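Tokens in:
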């Protein structure tokens, strides 16, 4: 190859190179173009290899043109690459575009379970009177659930019929508490008198489930122990509770009944908070039974470590599910446990 030929090749390659680069649409096509015009096998490289065979003048002249062509092609390749990167970035941004004018997705707030609502109200009414909240385990033994509460050994409530036993070979005799009263004993054991506590909790009985009976249900227990507490304190406390819970006109009626852990014992009725005491479908005769109560039996005080000569007290136990049923007109207690969201949503914002 002579110098004239070399210069002609360089001009041709400059034009061909620009053309290839401009037409390249992908990073791969650019690389192919680069190899085709500046690679080892490209005509450009042949020109470079022949420079050594030219005289000094020609070598310098052709060499200068060769450098200039390389510089121009490299710049064109670089510019095309930058152009492509910018286009790719714009594409990615476009793909990520967020429409800030779209309306937001509304979160559906949960709501409290009706039993939770009632339980909190009961607890709040008593904490405002100065009571503290206590809790105890749902798995108990015979002593806490029965014996310490003065149940005779042959009392029918201990039979398999009522009690659900827990089968743990290492701890024979465990059971699911059938009421919140065992926490009376636990609280007395843990604290010195005077004592004013409410104890919300879940209870279990071996019960045929129907519209008015659940095998898993809730109680709020109350326990007040002090010097000089009398039955009239119990009645006054229950009246104050009933009025705070169901309305200022509430009447409370106590009928004698038997619970082994109280003496005397009473079942407590409040005037119907639907009809006000005239008699309706909810109450029948104008009264609704909502709790059991009584003066704490001396044997129970002793089991809790308190001196029955010095202290007296009263206790009561309220069926939370039943109060929720009556208050909200729920026809079947099982609805409280079906977990049907449409039922539960009806209590959003309820009081
Ligand atoms: N523990 C009793 C029950 O479950 C209720 C009760 C509590 C009665 C406290 C009197 C005093 O039926």
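Residues out:
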């Amino acid at each position: 190859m002579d110098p004239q030929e070399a210069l002609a090749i360089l001009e041709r390659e400059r034009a061909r190179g620009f053309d290839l680069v401009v037409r390249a649409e992908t990073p791969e096509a650019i690389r192919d173009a680069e190899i085709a015009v500046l690679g080892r096998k490209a005509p450009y490289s042949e020109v470079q290899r022949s420079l050594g065979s030219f005289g000094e003048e020609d070598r310098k002249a052709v060499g200068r043109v060769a450098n200039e062509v390389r510089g121009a092609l490299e710049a064109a390749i670089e510019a095309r690459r930058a152009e492509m990167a910018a286009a790719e970035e714009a594409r990615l941004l476009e793909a990520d575009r967020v429409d800030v004018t779209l309306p937001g997705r509304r979160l559906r707030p949960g709501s409290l379970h009706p039993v939770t609502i009632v339980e909190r109200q009961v607890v709040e009414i008593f904490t405002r009177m100065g009571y503290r909240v206590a809790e105890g385990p749902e798995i108990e033994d015979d002593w806490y659930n029965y014996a310490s509460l003065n149940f005779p050994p042959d009392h029918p409530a201990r039979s398999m019929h009522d009690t659900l036993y827990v089968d743990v070979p290492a701890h024979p005799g465990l059971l699911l508490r059938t009421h919140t009263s065992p926490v009376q004993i636990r609280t007395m054991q843990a604290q010195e008198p005077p004592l004013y506590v409410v104890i919300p909790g879940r209870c279990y009985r071996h019960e045929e489930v129907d519209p008015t009976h659940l095998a898993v249900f809730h109680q709020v227990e109350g326990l007040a122990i002090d010097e000089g507490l009398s039955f009239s304190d119990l009645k006054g406390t229950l009246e104050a509770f009933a009025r705070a819970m169901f309305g200022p006109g509430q009447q409370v009626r106590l009928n004698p009944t038997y619970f082994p852990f109280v003496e005397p014992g009473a079942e407590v009725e409040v005037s119907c908070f639907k009809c006000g005491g005239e008699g309706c479908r909810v109450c029948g005769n104008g009264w609704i039974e909502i709790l059991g109560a009584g003066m704490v039996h001396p044997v129970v005080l002793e089991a809790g470590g308190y001196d029955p000569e010095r202290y007296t007290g009263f206790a009561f136990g309220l069926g939370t599910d039943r109060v929720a049923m009556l208050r909200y007109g729920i026809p079947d207690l099982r609805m409280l446990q079906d977990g049907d969201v449409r039922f539960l949503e009806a209590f959003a914002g309820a009081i």
